[in-house]
Amino acid sequence: MSLSHLLFAALILFILLLIGFWGGKRFILRRRRPEHDTVHTPDEVEKSDVDESQILRTYFRGLSYVIANETDKAVAVFVKVAKVNTTTAEIYLALGQLFRNTGELERAIRVHRDILLRPNLPDDIRQQTFFEIGLDYKKAGFFDRACRTFEEIVEKNPEDHAARRELSALYVGMREWEKALALSRTSPTAENETNVIAHLTTEVAKAAD
User: How far is Cα 200 from Cα 20, in angstroms, rounded to an integer?
Assistant: First the structure.
């Protein structure tokens, strides 16, 4: 079996496991729901069941495209579900990561960008999606775009250490010593980075000569 087929098989297994976990979690939550919770009308219950049935059918249609090696159609189907179902956004984050790790960078960027189109996306999912897009850009060699993405993340959340690490590595790789130094000095853990700050200060001085 070729590497591509192994990867597709792994993708199928991974998504099926997540679907199973998601479905099981919903079942458990329903079983644990207290009797005094909101009572839904028969029409509301029927609509909910229909929605879930449609989502599952869409999943398996996407998986059939994966099996047929029609990855463009598979991505389109999975992204469509991600736009309408917030609870499964993690699946599509993982899908984008898989594409990035296998060199399918355009698909990775497309999946992650489309997740951001989902209205009312939770802040933590939105933040993680931006981070994944930054990694996509970095691996694709779009370093300026990656920097801007991580800069935006750090601006919104100065204590995002993962984004800071990625941004610092990009600055150093691009020999943007002043930016790297400024980033280190504003780090919440700056007192533990004296050696790094000293090194960057030296590089800034060398670049000025």
Answer: 49
For residue 52, pLDDT over 80 is answered with no
Q: Tell me the mean pLDDT in the region 35-49.
A: 42
Question: Are residues 121 and 87 in contact, defined by beta-carbon separation less than 8 angstroms?
Answer: no
- Which residue intervals of the chain are DSSP H helices? 3-32, 42-67, 71-84, 89-101, 105-115, 123-140, 143-156, 161-173, 177-185, 194-208
Rama region for 83: left / alpha / beta (φ>0; ψ in -120 to 50; rest):
alpha
Closest CA to 109 of 81, 135, 76, 83: 135
CA dihedral 54→55→58→64, nearest 10 degrees, is -120
As a whole number of angstroms, the distance between CA 192 and CA 114 comes to 38
- Name the residue type at position 146: A
Q: How confident is the model at residue 157 (pLDDT cuts 50, 70, 90)?
A: very high
Share of the chain above pLDDT 90, in %: 35
Tell me the whole-structure pTM to 2 decimals.
Answer: 0.66
